[in-house]
Specification:
Length: 167
């Protein structure tokens, strides 16, 4: 019974963190409610109600949440949702179209994997993982993931280029 109660408390705590992150979208800009209302076709009061954690009958829709986060470039709600579901969101800048070849991107990714492995090896060498070592491992791992997304984009562009040239 204690395990179920602990899980319920943890779940409620995570849910509250998500609601708080949604509410913080209103604090991200002085006239956020009006700005969101205009882009979503709602009234500012409706937006305020949807982002108020004390009003459980109002629910923020997924598409509206994405629109609000993109508008404010405040992604704390996304990070909290991921954490609640047991995931981690890693920001990756894909705004620039990579002009590097696939092999170059792949080699950069492999180098990032090597840095991650080295960080882990350094950390476990003395059988003690310090917070600084954990941060180094996490940072290296996140960079590896970002590099992998770059490889995926380069592969997709190469596939599109090959498909277009053969049709």
């Amino acid at each position: 019974m204690q395990i179920f109660e602990d899980e319920l408390m943890q779940s409620q705590r995570n849910y509250n963190a998500v609601l708080h992150a949604a509410h913080l979208l209103l604090k991200s800009h002085p006239s956020a409610a009006e700005m969101f209302a205009c882009s979503l076709g709602k009234t500012p009061n409706t937006v305020r109600n949807e982002l108020n954690p004390n009003l459980p009958n109002y629910k923020l829709g997924l598409i509206d949440a994405v629109e609000m986060m993109n508008c404010t470039e405040c992604f704390s709600l996304l990070f909290q949702i991921n954490a609640m579901c047991g995931f981690v969101a890693v920001p990756v800048d894909l705004s620039e179209k990579p002009t590097e070849r696939v092999l170059d991107k792949f080699c950069q990714w492999q180098a990032a994997v090597g840095r991650t492995c080295q960080s882990i090896y350094d950390a476990i060498e003395d059988d003690i993982i310090t917070p600084t070592e954990l941060n180094a491992i996490t940072s290296a791992g996140n960079k590896k993931m970002a590099q992998w997304f770059g490889v995926q984009v380069a592969l997709q562009q190469e596939a599109e280029r090959n498909h277009v040239s053969r049709t």
